[in-house]
């Protein structure tokens, strides 16, 4: 039967057009526009719809505003110390809000989550710290359930009693009093609740043998399931976390509203992740959705049940096959029809529901796209009305941003590569200066369609940008991801080269005006690119990159991670120390002809800052002096707005020297 659109769609579409116009600034794009942090990261509605809560920047920190939903006036603000910002926030009940904070620490520019939990009423009265080190709690707290059928309590997890074991507690949101619900049986275990808030599943990362399973050892993940609280745990699977298993893996993503079914994300039967529904009564398994090209990510519907409990139920999948799309298991469900109507009301945008009222009449939604960094709207289903609330970055003019288009090409060994090409506005897309922009990671992460500061900055300067999901990237199946191990400087680098040659052959790129720029692994790939292909690129920008592979075994936090860090690097880098040096830019500086910019932070422990010094010294030793951008207080990526602005200005000058 043909789906019909809800009656509210037409006025929503008309109003949507108007509010888009209101939200769009009509100013020239500047470096500051790309350097500034978002004004609003999130907006949520209270369970009964009386209030909105939203974070906003004030001087050097962020505050939480409580807004009257009828008058749209700010009622009050939650303010912490000048070096402390509200980070995440939730409604504990219709009148009380919870929040966590981040804090500037020492010489670090980026703030750190403190693990503390605070609460206050909607009028900002009765403020209290519920949990944290200032309450003499020697651990952090994670919210596991808001228990909306119990207005006084929430469920939290914390490793208060033993470092490797997170227990489950109730926490009174008015007094901070907590009560142990259940102790963890497994170390480093997640807490997966069913829709009656019972701890039904856990995934435990093993750091030592404990006699439960003969195969359990350091670096392995075990999934456990049980029938009810107090029932014995059953081990379901074992996965080597240091590398994707050749047999695939399965992870629990949630339960059905009635708890009769469990949903898993699984790639044991095929290369890509599919979503399965398992009937708990007999263990029968049904494939709900799988895409043969890319992984399916679960789409979770969060709403309130008739008993007041908050239900979280997988009802579909999001698929990032070029431009992302949502697939519903039941396209004729009421929710699916509403969501499809929202998509039509905001064409070209991804829709996210941040929160809903208990009666399901008011939805707080956000929209985003390749040119839209984010806008928030209030949708009133009963009135058939949508109202613009705020833009996350109102200074960004969508009409001046560049569109991102999906592309694909065949690599030298016949493997299909996917990625995105962004062409500057006003360009015919022919023979333009091009920037190859490899992503970080590299094993697991990938580039997605959506708003990207650096891509838009480059396009605004008149450059095309090519992002390639080279082998080793996630999202294209386990074989594709696994094929990147041991290929740093090898096949992964060749994929970037092949993409560059494809762009030249297609007529997009001026072969004499091509640079390569990336961060983290992308910084490594940028410098390795000009080592392996000295005549292909005119310049390279290495941003918080790795340049000396053997160095990483002795410097930085990767090698220190739970015993598997070194194992991971051995598998990722591949080869002996001599082979790793052959694939290290710092040991091949004499091969570089291109101009080089090195960008790093003095507090970077991930791609340890020593990498930058080693690379600079190697270049200077062979008579090549790189452009040096060093910020002492930054970590793995620049956070401070002034530092970000200076970085973009330096990039602007550097790229102009080689591409204009």
Provide the β-strand percentage band. 25-35%
What distance separates the N and C termini? 57 Å
**Uncertain residue ranges:** 1-27, 208-218
Number of helices: 11
Q: Over all CA atoms, what is the radius of gyration?
A: 26 Å
Labels describing this entry:
660 residues, alpha+beta, eight-stranded mixed beta sheet, 11 helices, globular, disordered N terminus
Short description:
The protein is α+β, with helices and mostly antiparallel strands and 660 residues long.
Structure write-up:
It is a single chain. This protein has 660 residues and is of the alpha+beta class. 18% of the residues lie in helices and 35% in strands. It has eleven helices and 36 strands. The strands form eight sheets. Strands 29-30-32-31-33-34-35-36 form an eight-stranded mixed beta sheet, sandwiched between helices. Strands 5, 6, 7, 8 and 9 form a five-stranded antiparallel beta sheet that branches. β8 and β9 (128-131) form a beta hairpin. α1 crosses α3. It is globular and about 70 Å long. The chain starts with 8 loop residues before the first helix and ends with a helix. The model is unreliable at 1-27 and 208-218 (pLDDT under 50).
């Amino acid at each position: 039967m043909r789906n019909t659109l809800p009656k509210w769609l037409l006025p929503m579409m008309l109003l949507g057009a108007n509010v888009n116009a209101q939200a769009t600034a009509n100013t020239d794009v500047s470096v500051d526009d790309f350097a500034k942090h978002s004004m609003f990261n999130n907006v949520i509605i209270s369970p009964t719809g009386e209030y909105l809560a939203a974070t906003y920047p004030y001087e050097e920190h962020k505050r939480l505003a409580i807004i009257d939903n009828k008058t749209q006036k700010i009622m009050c603000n939650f303010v912490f110390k000048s070096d402390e910002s509200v980070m995440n926030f939730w409604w504990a009940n219709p009148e009380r809000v919870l929040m966590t904070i981040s804090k500037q620490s020492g010489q670090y520019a980026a703030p750190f989550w403190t693990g503390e939990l605070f609460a206050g009423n909607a009028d900002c009265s009765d403020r209290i710290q519920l949990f944290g080190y200032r309450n003499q709690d020697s651990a952090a707290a994670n919210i596991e359930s808001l228990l909306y059928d119990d207005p006084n309590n929430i469920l939290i997890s914390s490793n208060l009693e033993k470092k490797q074991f997170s227990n489950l507690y109730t926490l009174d949101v008015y007094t901070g009093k907590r009560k142990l619900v259940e102790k963890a049986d497994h170390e480093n275990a997640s807490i997966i609740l069913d829709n009656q808030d019972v701890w039904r599943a856990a995934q435990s990362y093993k750091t030592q043998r404990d006699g439960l399973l003969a195969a359990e050892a350091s670096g392995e993940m075990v999934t456990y399931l049980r029938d009810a609280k107090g029932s014995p745990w059953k081990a379901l699977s074992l996965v080597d976390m240091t590398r994707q298993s050749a047999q695939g893996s399965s992870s629990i993503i949630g339960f059905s509203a009635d708890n009769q079914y469990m949903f898993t994300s699984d790639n044991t039967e095929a290369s890509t992740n599919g979503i399965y529904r398992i009937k708990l009564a007999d263990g029968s398994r049904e494939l709900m959705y799988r895409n043969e090209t890319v992984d399916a990510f679960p789409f979770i519907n969060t709403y309130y049940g008739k008993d007041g409990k908050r239900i979280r139920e997988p009802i579909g999948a999001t698929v990032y096959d070029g431009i992302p799309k949502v697939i519903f298991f039941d396209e004729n469900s009421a929710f699916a029809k509403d969501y499809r109507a929202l998509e039509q009301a905001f064409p070209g945008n991804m829709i996210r529901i941040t929160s809903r009222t208990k009666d399901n009449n008011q939805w707080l939604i956000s929209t985003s796209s390749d040119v839209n960094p984010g806008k928030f709207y209030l949708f009133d289903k009963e009135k058939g009305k949508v109202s613009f609330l705020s833009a996350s970055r109102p200074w960004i003019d969508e009409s001046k941003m560049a569109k991102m288009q999906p592309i694909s090409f065949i690599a030298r060994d016949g493997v299909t590569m996917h990625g995105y090409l962004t062409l500057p506005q006003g360009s015919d897309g022919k023979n333009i200066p091009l920037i190859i922009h490899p992503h970080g990671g590299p094993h697991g992460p990938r580039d997605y369609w959506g708003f990207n500061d650096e891509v838009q900055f480059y396009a605004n300067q008149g450059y095309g940008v090519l992002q390639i999901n080279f082998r080793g990237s996630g999202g294209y199946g386990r074989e594709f991801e696994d094929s990147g191990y041991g290929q740093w400087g090898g096949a992964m680098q060749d994929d970037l080269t092949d993409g560059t040659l494809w762009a030249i052959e297609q007529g997009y790129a001026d072969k004499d005006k091509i640079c390569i720029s990336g961060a983290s692994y992308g910084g490594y790939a940028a410098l390795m690119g000009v080592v392996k292909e000295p005549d292909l690129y005119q310049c390279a920008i290495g941003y918080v990159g790795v340049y000396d592979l053997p160095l990483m075994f002795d410097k930085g936090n990767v090698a220190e991670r739970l015993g598997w860090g070194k194992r991971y690097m051995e598998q990722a880098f591949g080869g002996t120390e001599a082979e790793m040096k052959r694939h290290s830019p710092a040991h091949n500086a004499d091969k570089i002809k291109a101009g080089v910019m090195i960008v790093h932070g003095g507090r970077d422990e991930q791609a340890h800052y020593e990498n930058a010094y080693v690379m600079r010294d190697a270049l200077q030793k062979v008579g090549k002096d790189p452009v040096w951008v060093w910020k002492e207080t930054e970590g793995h990526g620049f956070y401070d707005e002034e530092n970000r602005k200076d970085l973009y200005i330096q990039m602007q000058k550097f790229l102009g020297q080689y591409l204009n």
